[in-house]
Amino acid sequence: SKDVSIERFKIGHISAEWISIPGANEEKVFFNLFGGGYVMGTLESRRWIPYHLSRATHLRCLNIEYRLAPEYPFPAALDDSIKSYKWLLSNGFDSKNIIICGESAGGGLTIATLLKLKVFKLPLPAAGVLMSPWADLTVSGKSLLGNQKFEPLMIEGLKSMAKSYAQKESLSNPLISPVFADLKGLPPLLIQAGGIEALVDDSISLAERAKTAGVDVKLEVFENMTHVFQNFGLELSESRKAFESVNEFIHKYI
């Protein structure tokens, strides 16, 4: 579409793209980690959410193609997200002007990235936005069974993706399943989920954990919506509301 500009480049071995609408803010950016169960996803197939984020907020969005399992298991994806964030910092972007975001597996990776940045004592982004995060790779949320009828996102598929990513590592490693992490010191978080998605418990648990750790967290569960319903863009009213909410949320912090 002609109202979007896509600029492809490399960060070391990582393929990356700037996605923006005309007139987007040059200084304030999203750093986006796409979803795909840690085993799939390409820049071409994952432009939709960054595009709508840019439309809704007038910020540019950096989308990266982190390495995927099973060929590159944990911690490859995390290493790539850290490397890309450091690239932003060394290319003139102030951490105060960066919003980290991710959907599904990318939502879990967003939290893992924040935890790792804290370990490295690197300046944290201003805020984080998570859409339907997959944050428990032990696949033990009760909603998995309860909401299975609404969603083809089946338990077996999740288990096999989790195994591909973790391989020899424990599935309850907090950098693999951030629902088990100490989230103290993380920036403000907006977590959005669909009310009938199989993974809604991941969002609820993550929000509770963040709150317990003193993080400024906002959880929004959209009734009757499925996993990453934001893919409907600005056409579906709930999805449009979700992007409006992201816009409102981030502008409190940047």
From TrEMBL:
Start and end residues of each Alpha/beta hydrolase fold-3 domain: 33-230
Sorted UniProt keywords: Hydrolase
Key word Hydrolase present: yes
Entry GO MF terms: hydrolase activity
InterPro entries membership: AB_hydrolase_3 (IPR013094), AB_hydrolase_fold (IPR029058), GDXG_lipolytic_enzyme (IPR050300)
Protein name: Alpha/beta hydrolase fold-3 domain-containing protein
Species this chain originates from: marine sediment metagenome
